[in-house]
Amino acid sequence: MSKSKDALNTSDALPVTYELALQELEELVQQMESSQLPLDHLLQAYQHGAALLKFCREKLTSIEDQIKVLDEGHLKTWTDNT
Hints:
The chain is mainly alpha-helical. The protein has one domain (18-77). Helix content is 54%, strand content 10%. It has helices at residues 18-33, 39-66; strands spanning 68-71, 74-77. A two-stranded antiparallel sheet has the order 1-2. Strand 1 and strand 2 form a beta hairpin. Helix 1 (18-33) runs antiparallel to helix 2 (39-66). It is elongated and about 55 Å long.
């Protein structure tokens, strides 16, 4: 079985940015919901979507971890008090 890109434009490689991953995930969900995918591609699409979702969650967690401020010698999660 070949791992070439198909009509889904899915490959094992993940996008380099959160925004690109989110866009690709949204497009994939639209394709899956429209029932335009052959049955044998649905599992592949689902697996790639799960990988994209994991990538997005990891990026968000990484950013959340970086949004910390030093407060009296202790790391404290930044909160918007507006």
